[in-house]
Each structure stands twice: as C-alpha cells, then as structure tokens.
Q: What sequence folds into this?
C-alpha cells in the first residue's frame, strides 16, 4: 500500500446509542430463549467487544466460545474462501447457538460459518450482528438480531478495525482515507 494522507473519523453511532441498543437486543434474546441456555459464539476479533457487552445483558444461563476465520481475497474484498484459524473449544451439539458478528457485509464469511456450524448439530442457530450493510450483500444471509442498519460506508470502532487499529473507539465512526 502506498503512502496515504490523513485518516478522518466521523461519529456515526454514539456510545450511548450503542449501549441502549445492545441492551434491547439482549432483552429480545432473553425473551426468545426464556428458560433455556444460550451459547454465544463470537467471530474474532471484531465481535469481541459487542459480545462482551451483549452477554452481560442477557438474563439466561449462558456460555461463550470464539472462532477465528480468515477470508482470502484480493485487497480488502472478501472472496468467500474462508479458512478457520481458531476453532471452537467445545462441542455445540444440542445447544442454542447464537453466532455473534461485528458486521454483516457481503455475507460471504457468515454463509461459510453457518454451514460449518450447522454440520455440528446445534439445537438452533441464530445470528446476532451489531451492524448490517444490506446494500453490500452477495449471499442471502439475514441477521436475526441486528443492532443497526447502516449505509455503505467503511466504519471502525467498538471492535471494528482498519488494519487492526481503532477497535478501541467507544463510538462507531466512519473512516475516510484522504488521498495524499
Ligand atoms: P463479509 O460479510 O464476508 O463481507 O465480511 C464481514 C467482515 O468484513 C466483518 O466481520 C468485518 O471484519 C469486515 N468488514 C466489513 N465491513 C467492514 C467495515 O465497514 N469496517 C470494518 N470491517 C468491515
Ligand atoms: Mg476485520
């Protein structure tokens, strides 16, 4: 990558709005699975902050695990060829699984993950995504629990990165790269 000019951050979703919405999503999950256990699987690394906040607002018997995947593609685009870098620690057979993602973009990564996880015979399988960019969808993947639907902008913060940076921002921000 060549030299770049300044990176500009503009707040898209404030911390307070994220907190409120995460609580609402968690309450919805609590209602939907009343009296049952849910097993949250976070897709590393982007989902780690969303999952951490979400699970603390779910008022059920819970357990968590993580999976890490890499997608091969030219440049920044996801190719749909996905490789598992870190697999689950334990069996999910018979569990109510909620796959937790930072953002649903093309859907290529999630459609692969859904296939992998479905093969392991969970009792049920749902998707929770903090953000959804439906305009970018290539595969017909639908989030069951979506925090916010956003326009086709590149965002960082609250777990989302640009080259591993900015995951620590408390707000979700639009990142603009100015040419130098
Ligand atoms: P896809 O749905 O297979 O295209 O890939 C989704 C993954 O791409 C997410 O888990 C993110 O890691 C990454 N991604 C997609 N859009 C953004 C964005 O706007 N900011 C940061 N990462 C993104
Ligand atoms: Mg990423």
A:
């Amino acid at each position: 990558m060549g030299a770049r000019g300044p990176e500009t951050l503009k707040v898209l979703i404030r911390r307070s709005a994220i907190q409120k919405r995460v609580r609402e999503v968690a309450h919805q999950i609590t209602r939907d699975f009343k009296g049952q256990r849910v097993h949250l699987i976070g897709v590393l690394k982007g989902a780690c902050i969303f999952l951490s906040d979400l699970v603390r607002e779910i008022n059920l018997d819970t357990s968590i695990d993580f999976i890490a995947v890499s997608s091969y593609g030219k440049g920044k685009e996801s190719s749909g060829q996905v490789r598992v870098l870190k697999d689950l620690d334990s069996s999910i057979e018979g569990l109510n699984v909620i796959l937790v993602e930072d953002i649903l973009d093309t859907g290529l990564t999630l459609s692969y993950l859904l296939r992998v996880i479905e093969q392991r015979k969970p009792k049920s399988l749902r998707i929770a995504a903090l953000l959804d960019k439906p305009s970018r969808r290539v595969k017909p993947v639908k989030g069951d629990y979506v925090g916010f639907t956003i326009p086709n902008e590149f965002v960082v913060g609250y777990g989302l990165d640009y080259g591993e940076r900015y995951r620590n921002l408390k707000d979700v921000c639009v990142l603009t790269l100015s040419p130098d």
